[in-house]
Structure formats: structure tokens, C-alpha cells
Amino acid sequence: MMDKKEKASAPKVPTGDARRRFFLKAAWGGIASFLLGSAVVFARFFYPRVLFEPPTRVKVGKPSEFLPGTVDTRFKDQYGVWIVRDDENRIFALRTVCTHLGCTPNWIESRNKFKCPCHGSGYLRNGVNVEGPAPRPLDRYKITLVDDGQILIDKSVIYRSVADKDPDETNPQSILIV
Amino acid sequence: MIKKLFDKFRQTPVGKSIFRRNYTHTPKDRMQAIHGNVFFHLHPVNVRRGALKLGFTWAMGGITFLLFLILTISGVLLMFYYHPNTRDAYVDIKDLEFTVPFGLFLRNIHRWAAHLMVITAMVHMFRVFMTGSYKHPRQFNWVIGVILLTLTLLLSFTGYLLPWDQLGYWAITVGTNMARASPFVGHEGPFGPQLGMTAYNDLRFAMLGGSTVGSNALLRAYIWHCIALPVAAYVLLIVHFWRIRRDGGISGPQ
Known about the structure:
CATH topology of chain B: Cytochrome Bc1 Complex, Chain C
Structural class of chain A: alpha+beta
Oligomer: heterodimer
Number of helices of chain A: 4
């Protein structure tokens, strides 16, 4: 009885019990933050910093190597890209993936269009879808001119067009004017 | 003769150290035998006669577990001849099929058991659902069962890539493209681009260990398939079986 009264009147110093509770809370807090941190580390671990994949930025040569009004299929197998130069001397890099289900279309010179062998989607020279189940024009890659005068294709930047809209207008960044 | 020899063995110091008590064929000893064994104690001590009716259980849970055991053993054996890299994987499977003794048999056992396990797990769930065995007090075991089905499907999916043939390659391409198109966590899914998802930081990237189905993807599929997922499945199987016992034994006709 006496003890209790003394405690109540004493200045606020943590008693043994309160101190124990604080340490317990701190310990659980420490364990929880350790587990949370470990979870973050574990998740981050699955995202590698360095990749040993084919390069995403490739040089394809000087603009003069591409004649006006042609579709260049030389880089289709290696880089998955068609370099198209139209009559107005605008160059763009079409991604060789059908926007329907991801097959690889073919450039058919005699019919002046890209045709997908899987389901018959057809695209014009500028990538606009005109027939078959393809929902939108062919995607384009970022294209720039670098210091040595060569065209650089950045495959990690993909310009996605919208159905029924001119891809030249929706993706002006995808065009290199020479 | 064999029984006599066995009884004699039980009286030796070695036998006594293995079997801790004498076994007489009384109901109590039978229960003790189940109770005291580390593997059997997961199993209910008593099983009602009606619960063993094939027409009720279809034996689908047990068959699924048997298939999982077959897959574990045949899978470990396959690992002895398989290198998880893009140079060797495809030819190692060909090697297994054409030159390794019993390799073709081994591979086909693994393949067919894998296909069957997906089917039997689903039929097992169908039976549990139709007999109402997921109801109180077995709701939690149903939840574990759903997770086990997911693990079965993931094991099936990751195993698909390992032969490194056209079939598996495109299956994983399509499967991970679904992750690419998932909301929030995929770079082509709804709200993905707005959250800053690209081909190099979304969920698909973590699954493949890269932006394309390449050597990292093969190695990841291999490790998930051979270590992480089976260990998780075994842990959950132990809980699954233990819960049958704790939830009042296997369900039976009322």
C-alpha cells in the first residue's frame, strides 16, 4: 500500500514494467522493420541491373543508304526493324511485330504493303493497318541521327499508334527528316 | 517365417531403438502406431468406413499426391542429365530421349504425371465442391487447396520452358505477355505506363530476368520449377493433410 502511494507521487520515471514493455515494442518493431526491409531487398533482387541481351540501340547506316520511296528489309532478321524512307524524305523505323497477335509480317513489294502470314493483317508502307484483324498501325521505334552521320534506332522507346489516326501525326518524334 | 524374424529383430537393442514400444494387434497399439510416426501422424488416426468409399472420394486427392511424389522422384532423376542453359537444354532433352538408359521412359513419366496432376487436382476440387466438403469446419483447408492448385499450375508453367523448344518458348512468351498487359504491374497494362512501368521494370521483367525470353528466363524457370515451388508445395501439403485430421477427419457421406 505504501509502495503504491510512493510510486504515484514520484516523478515520471519509467518503472521496470513500463521499461520492459518499451523494450518489447522496440524489439518487435526492429523485427518487423527487418522483415519489411528483407522483403524489399528480396523483391529488388529479382530486377537485374546489367543485362546480357542484344543491344537495344543499333546503328543502321547513313540516310543516303536508304533511297526515297523504299522499304529496307535488311535489318528485319537481325534487329526486327524495317527502315522506310518515303518520297518526302522522311525516315522511320517500323517494328516488325504484327499489332494483332505478335507474328512477323512480310514486306511484299509487288503489292506495296506489309502482310502478316498468321491472320492476314495488311499494313501500308507507313504502317497504317488497312485490312485483317490488326487493331492499330505498326509500332515505331525512336530514330535519331548521331554524330558520325548514322541513323540510330532505339528499340527501348516504342511509339504506339492509335487506330484510325495517322501515325505520322500521333508520333511526330518517330520520324527523321533528311 | 518373416514375421518371426521381424519379431526377433524388434527384441534386439537396434530394433528396440527404432520401434519404441511393443506392438500387439490391439486397437490402442494401432492408434499408437499412427500417432507415434512422424509421417503417419499427419494422417487421421481413424478413418470412417464410409469416407473410404470410392464413389464418394474418387480417391482424387490421394492420386494427386501420388503423382506429386512420382514427379518429385522422376524430376530429381531428370536433373542429373539436364543443364539449365540455352546452349545445352534442348540437346539434353534429346539426349535423354535417345541415349540415356530409360531416359525416354523417365521423361514421359514426368510429362504424363504432370499433365495428369493438373487434371486430378481439378477433379479433386470438383469432388470436394460437389460433396460440400469445403464447408465448416474445412474452409481453411479449401483455401490451402486453392493455393496448392495455383502452385500446381505454376509448376506446370515453369516446367514448360525447360525443354527450350518452340512449344515452350512461345508458351512462356505468351504467358509472360499476359504479365506485360496486367494492370498497374505491366508496362502495357491499364495504368502501367502512368505508374512509370517500362519493359525494364515491370512484373514481366522480374519473371524473365530480362526483357526477352533468354538464358535468364530459362534459369529462373528452372529454379522456380525445381526448388522454390516444390518446397512451397510440400510445406502446404503437410498443412493440408494435417488440417484434414484437425478438422475432424476426411469428410464422408452423412
